[in-house]
Amino acid sequence: MKNFAVAALFATFPFVGSAQLGGLVNKVKNKVNQRIDQKVDAAIDKGLDKAEGKSTTKTASPATTSSSNTTVADEPVLKSTSKFDFIAGSTIFYYENFEQEAMGELPTGWNTNGTGEITSLDKYPGKWLRVHHPFTYLTANKTAFSENYTIEFDIILQLKNNGWMYPQVSFGLFSSGTEATTANDFLKDYDKYGAVTALFTPGEFKSSKVVLKSYVDGKGFFTGEPKSIPELEQWYGRPVHIAIQVQKERYRMWANEVKIFDIPKGVPLNYVMNQLQIRIHHTNYNDSQYGIYLSNIKMAKGLPDTRHKLIDEGKFSTTSILFDVNAATLKPESYGTIKEIAGILNDYKEVRIKITGHTDSDGNDKDNLLLSQKRAEAVKTALVNEYGIDGSRLETEGKGEAEPVADNKLKEGKAANRRIDMKVIK
């Protein structure tokens, strides 16, 4: 089969140079091996299913046979990622989804040594910042991160193999010392005080890797081994949620539900970090052949003391339980917080709680009230179905936009108002 595939390659590409042809031959061989492996796996699974008495007849998915007109946004849909243990910081100090930015322009307060522009995408809501190679980008944040903090953002890697290596993408946290966080020096020398950076090398055929490095005063502090992340290749063309959690020296990173790093002493303590740098490295692809987009950047400080708040004080509020836009669909990054709440309820089986959903002021009051109710119900459903909490211990309600805790005129205020409150029922 392999020889046949290679012969077909010569017939298909008669004018390809020898160097390029060698690469194509290797690619075809890899693809053939991949298909053979898939067929062997399928045959093994079929044989095991038969031996175990399982049915091998395919059935239609309920989603394709239902005649209901109810949309996904009307139901509290679950995305099961119970192993995801990321928990966002307790206080949001920077949030950027570009909703107030002009299309085609670089976001207000950002800096770059190249170009970048706000755009919209057909498949995904909201506004996105398109970034280009070989340029560096600094956010508009001016607040120090403290010693415990989290950084989150969504990235889309619109990549399609055209024979060249994909651009590397790095995300660096650094300290600007006494200088401005957007000073031009940090577009190149971001490591001159303290810094920690994750360098992603996207690839094909499960070759994608990421490595973590950190610096103090321009010198290396920590260098990790390259970590394989084959899942990245499955996510090309759709949003990937990057979550970073720093607790003093400890650095942890997730891509969607996959934990990439948990480095006990990866972050230098000599300086307080206060900026996020995004860098797109060199590639031979031109701008029309790839696209890299960023949005929903959230920075928060502090460690949520969930147990103390809920059990000792009788109430707990969180902005780390998140949902799809205008829907009650839980995002995967919500499950770390939900899992922690479930653990507390399992330890204190006499405790009953009321779950209250809140929204920001966008949209009309009636829709926001209904949405907040459905989101509270989605959290209850997750606690019951994913973690076995008795549903009789949980009540739900929605308050919509009626009880803001921050200014809805500010992006950070809106993010703070989109929250879930929990209160112990006496």
From TrEMBL:
InterPro entries: Bact_OuterMem_StrucFunc (IPR050330), OMP_bac (IPR006664), OmpA-like (IPR006665), OMPA-like_CS (IPR006690), OmpA-like_sf (IPR036737). It comes from the Bacteria. It is found in: Cell outer membrane. Keywords: Cell outer membrane, Membrane, Signal. Residues 310-426 form the OmpA-like domain. The keyword Disulfide bond does not apply. The keyword Signal applies. Residues 56-71 have a biased composition (Low complexity). Coiled coil: none annotated. Residues 51-72 are annotated as: Disordered. Residues 1-19 form the signal peptide. PROSITE patterns: OMPA_1, OMPA_2. Its main location: membrane. CDD domains: OmpA_C-like (cd07185). This is OmpA family protein. It comes from Niastella soli.
